[in-house]
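Help needed: design a sequence for this.
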């Protein structure tokens, strides 16, 4: 298995299973400091992607990433729909006319994360998905010289620690920002789903390495 469009069906399957297995927890997180719809928004997007799975696996990686972004954007709804949509669309744009390898993947992921920052007008420390995504992309960049299993271990840890870091934060963006101090003590739902998705992909790659 490699980071190529042929692996998309396996990635989508693993992501959907992990999101399903943690759906109740994510709903509870979004109920605590948001409106509770985050996981159903994401599952709607994932179901639409699974219908396109075969088609996506035959596209070049730039086109596949763009299509994933457009599908998420048009099916998910919520703040997270446009943010996850931008993430993948910007990745696809950056990937244009490049081969998939560790360097080009890290560069595409970086472009995707920058696009989420721009669209959400948010950065590290605001109790959002970016608290998972920013440490994850930094880890990928810093460990590009390591062998793939070690790089993926570091990636999973960075995503996990980033997700956990949202627990004690105050929110300054999104619905949770209306709660002030009451947002403290709850992990951000989008940070959790980002971490689950990153870890699912990393594990598929490690299992088949
Ligand atoms: P909504 O907030 O519209 O109900 P969702 O529940 O689907 O949308 O998604 C909420 C998640 O989106 C949050 O948990 C947070 O991670 C992320 N989010 C919300 N606003 C922003 C923002 N401005 N920048 C980055 N991420 C954000
Ligand atoms: Mg919500």
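Sure. Designed sequence:
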């Amino acid at each position: 298995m490699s980071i190529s469009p042929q692996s998309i069906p396996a990635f989508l399957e693993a992501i959907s299973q992990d999101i399903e297995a943690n759906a109740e927890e994510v709903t509870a997180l979004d109920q605590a400091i948001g409106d509770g719809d985050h996981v159903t928004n994401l599952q709607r997007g994932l179901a639409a992607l699974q219908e396109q799975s075969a088609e996506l696996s035959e596209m070049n990686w730039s086109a596949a990433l763009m299509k994933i972004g457009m599908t998420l954007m048009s099916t998910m709804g919520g703040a997270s729909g446009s943010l996850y949509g931008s993430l993948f669309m910007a990745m696809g744009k950056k990937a244009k006319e490049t081969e998939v390898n560790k360097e080009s993947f890290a560069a595409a992921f970086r472009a995707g994360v920058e696009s989420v920052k721009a669209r959400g007008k948010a950065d590290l420390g605001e109790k959002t998905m970016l608290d998972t995504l920013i440490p994850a992309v930094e880890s990928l960049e810093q460990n590009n010289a390591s062998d793939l299993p070690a790089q993926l271990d570091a990636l999973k840890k960075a995503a996990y620690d980033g997700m956990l870091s949202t627990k004690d934060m105050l929110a300054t963006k999104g619905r949770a920002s209306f709660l002030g101090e009451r947002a403290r003590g709850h992990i951000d739902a989008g940070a959790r789903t980002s971490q689950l998705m990153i870890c699912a992909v990393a594990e598929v790659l490690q299992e088949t390495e």
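The chain has one domain: 5-208.
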